[in-house]
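Notebook B, p. 112. Complex prediction, attempt 2.
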Amino acid sequence: MSERVLLRHRGIPDYHTIEVYERHGGYEATRKALRDFQPGELVEMVKSSGLRGRGGAGFPTGLKWSFLPKQTEKPVYLCVNADESEPGTFKDREIIEFDPHQLLEGIIITSYAIGCHKAFIYIRGEFFFGAKVLNRAIEEARAKGYLGKNVFGSGLDLDVVVHRGAGAYICGEETGLIESIEGKRAYPRVKPPFPATYGIFGSPTIVNNVETLACVPHIVSRGPAWFKSIGPEKGPGPKLYCVSGHVERPGIYELPMGTPLREILYTHCGGIPGGRKLKAVIPGGSSVPIFTANEIDVPMDFDSVAKAGSLLGSAGIIVMDDSTCMVRALEVISRFYHHESCGQCTPCREGTGWLHKVLRRLEAGTGREADLQLLVDISDNMMGNTVCVLADAAAMPVKSFVSKFRDEFVEHVRLGRCPFRPLGEARRAAAAGH
Amino acid sequence: MPKVTIDGREALFEDGLTLIRAAERLGIEIPHYCWHPGLTIAGNCRMCLVEIDKVPKLQIACNTRVTDGMVVNTQNERVKRAQQSVLEFLLINHPIDCPICDQAGECKLQDYYMDFDKKSSRFPVEEKVRKRKVVDLGPQVVLDQERCILCLRCTRFLDEIPKTSELGVFERGDRAYIDLAPGKRLDNPYSANVVDICPVGALTSKDFRFKARVWYLKKTESVCAFCANGCNIEIYHRQGRIFRFRPRYNAEVNDYWMCDAGRMGYRLIQGENRSTGPQVRQGDELRPLAWKQAVDTVCTRLKGIREAGGDGAIAGILSAFATNEEAFLFRRLLQHPPSAGEDSRSIAGHAWSPPDAYGDDLLIKRDKNPNRKGLEALGIPTTPDAVERILEAARRGTIKALVVFGADLVAELGREQVEAALEALEFLVLIDLRRSETSLYADVVMPTSSFAETDGTFTNHAGRVQRVWQAFPPPGDAMEGWRLLTSLLAGLGDSTEWGSAEEVFAAMAREAGAFSGLSYQTLANRGAPSSAAAKTA
């Protein structure tokens, strides 16, 4: 196993306290950044490191920062997206709960780089413990003078506010998140304008993922060349992979960006339990196209996974063995997007529910073969036609499941029941309509 | 100026213009639900998706600004498929209860379905999401949540125009619905505008629903007469009956909106209390008689009183509900024959508003008279003491004959205020559209038109002269005001012939400085500032 950077807290008790954190070199990166560099130099440093956003889209972080207006009367805000909600994704949570000061360092350095004096951490409502940990860490940092007035004697004034969400997937979409911070219903905004010019309360705003910001202090302390040397040149760095489902050792793995999916599953996670065979893997959270067992020889970085027909997304790897009913699995996924669509745009509001209803009847054995084409039609009509990408997130798995596991869907129609369920249970499910 | 090609047609547009507006200028309608020209952009219905060269995804025309060299296609196969699919999505959970829906005939779901979709449903009826069907929102509006397409025009209107925010969105996804915020009622003075802007049958008017199918109704352009603002409206009517008023766009006056009070005003100008034929007093009773006899009676009496008592024995009170044409002819009637020097015959404008009249900074004026400025432009004073001076002269017996046009003095000023004056008169002529309390004192009653039943003009609070059109003739034997007054003028020996309200306006434009340079052609359907207003502007 390679060196742990983002997960270096593992095995060290009380790493979340500022004492232990500093004993292991904590806040040195921030001290260095604020002492030795001009803000513009830090932006250039992050640009040259090749860091790409870890929230899912993989947008170059330094480039995003440079979209801020050069001259503005308005305050500039940094907002940390800690609304980690994509099914199969649980990496930010570990950073927040066990290494909050690493995130705070990222926030302080980034705020200095972009001229921000008030940063928000928008944290998923269910992360109640995480919010407590963060608030405690913020108090510790403030007591030390690392937050507040004149941080590290640099002249930077900075406050950090933890804002808890109230339980909606759509709040992870950056403009939905901004609306939510403003106290409104989290309807994603029509773009343009983008947050860098018109964000929180109409002010220039940078929204970055937790893991993205956690990379920043390491880039400062070890240099952009070090960061770029890890994994592929276009999108390098240490990466957290969340593995769940049918593997011997599910969990979070820190590995170089671009580690092959097969290696992650079989070397690091110990393979498929119970002597069963791998059937399929979702590589980047429930919203991305699925890989079959034959498609796992792919380096897990943004460009390679995209080239292979899926997306690295949030690196939430969901593993399914041959006992899994793919119709059932897709029904569960579509139920999630049906539940979470904000309802703003017509294709998503109506399409997510329609997909779910069609899948429900297919799984119940009451579907028709024409439903397969209907699923593809609905998905095609949703994709690319909405304000945010939730519609695509709901449609992409449907299209890939139906095309790659078509036989299983047809089998459900032919048998009039789910072949993976015992006959009695399948009949009861059909009678109940789900 | 960016040069843009839309559907093969190249044109220049100003910077910042949205595609939906640019296309409109070329006569290309891009279908839309959520976009409304008077509200902020929501971009949620996705009906206005268009294809732009070199842009991979379809873009919404409502939020895309023109840029130089942009090439746009609004009707190719890809765009059509997107429009079809949005319609299909909108209809899967829609109840499709058009046969019992008031919006039928003016519903954008129906219209666009016929234009773009025309496919049968792929969605089983029993799986439709059920929501509440009859939600009482307030005095004007009823909501059907199942018909709603969540375009949010209503919530944006309430947030942005009256700024009262009574409605909000609750729940999410296909369970989302519009409802009242806790503890609120949709009862602001502009609430019924949400019915007009609702593109489907979700928000309907309590007053109008189930009264008529809209395709049976005729539409006549007009101006609301229930305050001094002069909001531009459309009158929807059939066979001499008005079914509703709706606002008509005029950026100079009311944008796209009107108030609820004005909207309900149509009820005041039709119904049981309209007088439909001339009447003459015989003892305690008013008896019907023919127009010719009525005109003869009035003219004979007025001539007799003038001969006996001189010019000062006759006076006139004219309501500020009269049109400019009526006011012009009324003044001419009272000043006939024209006197050489200072005219001692009194005319007062009765511009009455209830003492507690509501007004605000949006559209509603405290002055409830549509034409006070017009009367003033013709030299007719509209202060309360002008009316009081005439009443006082009547009480003293100086004024012996009074012609009242459109004013219910008894009801509005109070019986105790006016009774002595009216009883002291030798002769009272009342020209009005309603059977009013004042008619109890009248010797001759002459029924006339409401503003919906005549051509004419009003001058609003800002001095803007605006036309009204005759939607249908006055009821029964009632006569348009300008026609009635010209017949009285003829009876008094004024030989001028007037063939229409337009001819009256032309004469007024020649004689009265405030109207100089204006004509029915120049006023058209948007109106124009009077010369006086134009000078001060």
